[in-house]
Design goal:
Blueprint (H helix, E strand, L loop, with lengths): L2 H26 L7 H29 L9 H22 L7 H20 L3 H16 L1
Helix pairs in contact: 1-2, 1-3, 3-4
Amino acid sequence: MTRILATVLLLVGSNLFMTVAWYGHLRWFPGNSRSLLALLGVALIAWSIALPEYLLQVPANRLGHQGHGGAFTTPQLKIMQEAITLLVFAAFSILVLKDKFRPNDIAAFILIFIACDALGWLATSAGWKEFASVLSEFLSFA
């Protein structure tokens, strides 16, 4: 497995955990309780889910960063992470939370992905081009 693919897979995994931590309680703890104890309980559960996110995110950034032998600059890692976050969030929102995206939600997602694509066009890094190729292959199988 290449460092680039490992970076992408670790970022996807970390985003799965973080999305569940941030939004899962909306589905699995739907009560209307606004008591401080209930909110603290949900927050503690979310933090326990978020810990594995950090255990995946930090290695992803170190593997992927040019300063540690990877192919990506820090801005490239951040933009890639945000794009992955949006994909994971969209899937979670639709499949788990049963949300329906409004036209303005879809337009906002498209604009963010256009920005991500702009970085891909401007980047000269071979790693970024390989990431785009890996992502393209992955999307063709999905």
